[in-house]
Amino acid sequence: MQNLCKTCAHHEPCKKHETGHSQGLGRCNAVPMLWEATKWDENGDERILINPEQKAFVQDGSDYSATFYTMPDFGCVQHKEK
Description:
This protein is mainly beta. Helix content is 5%, strand content 17%. It has 1 helix and 5 strands. Strand 3 and strand 4 form a beta hairpin.
């Protein structure tokens, strides 16, 4: 069995109005924004991972909003069977 988005519980199909794309594009909910996946260390010098097991992150220039979009046949090591 391949670990593809189309069989993953983290994959959420997008509606055409969200992306203008209607060919199977979906959002991966397993990949968090980097800012939300980190916290300041005890000295306040740098941000550290909250969950060291996390493998991927998204980030935009403002740390306001970012989404990881994939096609159904994209493969991933964070796959979780539906």
